Amino acid sequence: MPPSMDRHTFINGAPRSSHGSKSHQAIDPSTLEPIATIHTSSETDLDDVIQAGVKAFPTWSSTPAIERSRILLKAAAILRSRTHELAVIETRSTGKPYSETSQIDIPTGADVLEYYANLVASGGLNGVCVGIGAWNYPIQIALWKSSPCLAAGNCMVYKPSEFTSLHAEELAKIYKEAGVPDGVFNVVYGGGDVGAYLTKHPDVAKVSFTGQVSTGRKVAGAAAGEMKYVTMELGGKSPVIVLPDADIENAVDGAMMANFFSTGQVCTNGTRVFVPRSIKSQFEKRLVEKMSYIRAGDLYDENTNFGPLVSKPHYEKVVGYIKHGIEVDKAGLLYGGLDTEVLTSRLPEKTRKGLWVRPTVFADCTDSMRIVKEEIFGPVMAILYYDTVEEAVKRANDTPLGLAAGVFGKDINQCHQVISQLEAGITWINTWGESPAEMAVGGWKQSGVGVENGRKGLEAWVRNKSTLVEMGGEVPTVFTKVLPSKL
Ligand code: NAD
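The joint structure predicted for all components is written out below.
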């Protein structure tokens, strides 16, 4: 680890001491130990950073596309060569196991950078764009936003979540080392007020936001005041439909990935698992057996695949939902629950104080339960029984959210039929969670506006300009006769 992980506004290629006095501690969620001081960017910092982008824009946007491509490809190569150190930072900052950050977060983030470096755009560009990130996939979100933004010739002011801020300066330094000019990628720190200031700023052309639906509403509302372009990647409460002919083993694996990967802190989580009443016993028996494959432990042990939750407020929220599920919703607690001692007693001594919850499964849930309706964003699965596939589809769609959905079954035609009826932007058949760079992802209904990744993702970072050139030399006109004026 570098000697100091403290963070200051990153402007024009270097960190600069903040003009403000506010700061907070970044905490390691597995030990609750403070790891760095994050200095909040003041309004002066924010104005300066946006002006740095405004100043850098003419040069970066007029850099030949192929040269931008070379620079970004170099950044992707540097990023990959630093996978280990970046993964350690992400693990300390988020509490995710190293097996996950080193194999998923960093490599898939680098994939997206490489993808857009090869797909550079030219044409009508936006200018200075703001990226605002959630805490769950810190560097990956930063890359999903900055790669197409920079590839299209725009500049970016990036604000990571106040809970997981450490990655952003590392990324800024990588861009600089690769040859991205100063002022093109800048980083600011702080919470909602910093995000809100950026969103309203008149010199910002576009806001790309990832976070909760309630925050997204505020961000889109503020951006609408100046008609800024927005992209919204928001929350979900996604359904998994296990069809009657599904391979139980496969369906259980999928449901577990959809609920317990990253300790359930994934926006596309398939938290409502619809199981045919006829096979519920087989499904639940195998699921409970396989729950022992979830291994909490030393986050740097390659066998650990389950970490703590990210922050104290989030821990309290998730524990509150589990409590509500048991005491108020009175759902059937099939596995897990509030007795975290069972889990923490097996952990290394230094991590026992961490923000651990047990992976939890509620069976026999109903559609009206709070744990079934609201996004928990933790390792909490709700199993719902159904009698007909038609009924399952109808109930799966009965939510204002529409981020992801999945189907498990042997009859691929039936799987396609069901997927085509599900109201969601990201869907899977007989698998869950993969999101390669070329796959556009975005939510339907209240889960989002626009998409990230894939060819479509680039469109959000360029403006359309249509030019019609008349080749015949005459303007088509209806004004052909001189008539007495009526005026
Ligand atoms: P959040 O909405 O609390 O915060 C997200 C970001 O917005 C943070 O950087 C925060 O500081 C900032 N912010 C807060 N108030 C703001 C305001 N008024 N104006 C501008 N910025 C403001 O979300 P979170 O708790 O960090 O993240 C979890 C949520 O993100 C979940 O709902 C999850 O589903 C969602 N998410 C969605 C995707 C996706 O691709 N659809 C990906 C990851 C996470």
